[in-house]
């Protein structure tokens, strides 16, 4: 179901990706692998169940302003909080926020935050249906890495502590629930 964030005709709508409704052709976030993923691979990834995507548009324009994708992931219990290590399970179930991207002309206007908050709210619902200890994402590494890392840290994400992937960050689902409920 779409999320209508304001009451005027330019209202931001965040809804599940629909190839027939969302115009991806002009989207560019400035990171070509993400742009290419949205335009070329997203539909195939959704078809086989790797991710689900939510797209931000305005009420009167189908052009994609931003998007995020969610998928399932298991992380090793020796990373993250001590409670994960005490669980004595082979993997900790988490929700993987695989991509968050905002069109270049919309960056710096709060859309990225709106997308992450929408994703967090959606993750609360998912975690209410199945086990999910946290939301995990990988901060993209390019010339804007530090800015992205600070953005996610301000939203409560912290390093997972994976020596094989130092860009991986997480926020415990308990923190998401405490903040957004």
Tell me about this structure:
The structure is a single chain. The chain is α+β, with helices and mostly antiparallel strands and 181 residues long. It has one domain (3-180): Gcn5-related N-acetyltransferase (GNAT) (Aminopeptidase), CATH 3.40.630.30. The protein is 31% helix and 29% strand. It contains five helices and eight strands; from the N terminus they run ββαββαβαβαββα. An eight-stranded mixed β-sheet has the order 1-2-3-4-5-6-8-7. β3 (52-58) and β4 (61-75) form a beta hairpin. α3 (111-127) packs across α5. The longest helix has 17 residues, at 111-127. The radius of gyration is 16 Å and the shape is globular. 29% of the residues are buried. Mean pLDDT is 92; it is low at 1-9.
Topology:
Layout lengths: L2 E2 L7 E5 L15 H16 L4 E7 L2 E15 L6 H5 L5 E11 L8 H17 L6 E5 L6 H10 L3 E2 L8 E5 H8 L1
Parallel strand pairs: 5-6
Antiparallel strand pairs: 1-2, 2-3, 3-4, 4-5, 6-8, 7-8
Helix pairs in contact: 3-5
